[in-house]
Each structure stands twice: as structure tokens, then as C-alpha cells.
Amino acid sequence: MIYGLSNIELCVTDMKPSIQQDAMRRAWAIFRQTYNYPAIKFSDIGRKCFAWALRQAWVEAREAARIAELSPAAKAERIETLQALIARAGYIDSGPQWKATISAHRDEIRQLTA
Questions:
Q1: In whole angstroms, what is the distance from residue 104 CA to residue 114 CA?
Q2: Residues 6+ apart with CB under 8 A from 46
Q3: In the chain, domain spans
Q4: What is the rounded CA–CA span in Å between residue 85 and residue 97?
Q5: Which stretches of the chain are assigned E, i.e. beta strand?
Q6: Per-residue model confidence (pLDDT) at position 109
Q7: Radius of gyration of the chain (CA)
Q8: 4 torsion bin: left (phi>0), alpha (psi -120 to 50), beta (else)
Q9: Which helix (H) or strand (E) holds 36?
Q10: Which alpha helices (DSSP H) does 17-46 contain, by range?
Q11: What is the pLDDT of residues 7-38, one digit of tens each?
Q12: What pLDDT is stored for residue 1 in this prediction?
């Protein structure tokens, strides 16, 4: 074996380039929003932070694909369940936890109705 060369082949997927481009665009948007990128140099923020933003973008893309695959009946059922959970959220004692729960449920309802 020659040092520096490897017998490992890279995995090439059938993923559309537009999906990859959209994920990269969203990753940069998340990175800019979270870390105030233009004002703070990339070298000060680091690659690990951008890697986190890229993972978040893929999480959002997978969630959007999952929602797109749901049938209208399943969406309506999920919205009804979320509205019932919002109605019961008044029993949560912690204010920040209540706010986070309500926000998460409303965000999911927004995604399902979009």
C-alpha cells in the first residue's frame, strides 16, 4: 500500500443535486442566523459549528419530506392531536417548559397546514 492512497471508495448516492444545494443554502442561513456570521469571522466560529448547522438543515429537510408523504387524513388527525395537547399544556407548571411545548406544537401545526 502506498501511503496517502486508500482502497476505500466513496459512496455516491442518487440524490438530486437540487436537494443538496437546498440543504447547503439552508445550512448557511442557519449558520448566519445562529452565529452572526458576517460580523464574526468564520475562523473564529469554526467548522464544527458549521457542521452542526448542516446537520440541522438535513434534519429540517427530512422532516419536510416526512410531512409531504403524509396523507391528508393523517395530517388532520395529527393536527387534532396537537391541538388537544396544546389545550392540556396549561397543566405544565414550568413557564419556560410550557412556552417551549406550545411553540413546538404550533410550529408542527404550521408545517402540517402549509
A1: 15
A2: none
A3: 14-69, 71-114
A4: 14
A5: none
A6: 87
A7: 20
A8: left
A9: none
A10: 17-35, 42-45
A11: 555 454 555 667 788 888 888 888 888 887 77
A12: 43
Residues 6+ apart with CB under 8 A from 112: 67, 70, 75, 78, 79, 82
Q: Which grid coordinates are listed for 60? A: 429540517
> 89 or 57, which is more confident?
57
Q: Record the cell numbers describing residue 103, joined without a space.
A: 411553540
Using DSSP's 3-state secondary structure scheme, residue 2 falls into coil
Looking up cell 442566523, which residue turns up? 33
Q: What is the C-alpha to C-alpha distance for residues 31 and 54, in angstroms, rounded to an integer? A: 8
Tens of pLDDT along 62-89? 888 888 888 889 888 888 988 898 888 8
> Contact 35/45 with Cβ under 8 angstroms?
yes
Burial 88-105 (b: 16+ CB within 10 A, else e): eeeeeeeeeeeeebeeeb
Element holding 4 (H helix, E strand): none
